Amino acid sequence: GESPRSWRGVTWSDDRVQRLDLEGSKLEVLAPQIGQLQALTKLVLGDCPLVVLPPEIGLLLALTDLRITNCDQLTLAPGAKEGQRAQTIVAAYARLLIV
């Protein structure tokens, strides 16, 4: 199989994913496992048919750069708005995990 290190849009450091660029992807769903990418500092979502983000986005505490553009179907969590600081959006999703 193909090594994840060769995937387009994925930047690695010390065997951990640091940046994930999904711009222009055909992804309709972002798997809850995204929350396991604890070293992720940058996530780019643009021009994709995503409808919702999983609550596990709230686990991405290292995320400092979240770019969401032209995802017309995407509804963000309560308290999260496109263009807000990454930490603000992560916090909105973290609240969804506390139930």
Structure description:
This protein has 99 residues and is α/β, with parallel strands linked by helices. It has one domain: Leucine-rich repeat, LRR (right-handed beta-alpha superhelix) (Alpha-Beta Horseshoe), CATH 3.80.10. Helices cover 12% and strands 20% of the residues. The protein is built from one helix and four strands, in the order ββββα. The protein has a four-stranded mixed β-sheet. β1 and β2 form a beta hairpin. The longest helix is centred in the last third of the chain and has 12 residues. The termini are far apart. The model has no long low-confidence stretch (mean pLDDT 90).
Derived structural class = alpha/beta
**Terminal-residue CA separation:** 39 Å
β-strand number:
4
Give the helix tally: 1
Mean pLDDT: 90
Instruction: Write out the strand line-up for the largest beta sheet, numbering strands in chain order.
Output: 1-2-3-4
CATH homologous superfamily (4th level) name? Ribonuclease Inhibitor
Residues in helices, as a percent range: 10-25%
- Biggest sheet, open or closed, and with what strands and sense? 4 strands, mixed
Radius of gyration (CA) equals 13 Å
Strand content: 15-25%
CATH level 3 topology: Leucine-rich repeat, LRR (right-handed beta-alpha superhelix)
Give the ordered list of helices and strands: EEEEH
- Weakly predicted, low-confidence segments: none
What's the domain count? 1
Shape: globular
Second CATH tier, the architecture = Alpha-Beta Horseshoe
CATH class: Alpha Beta
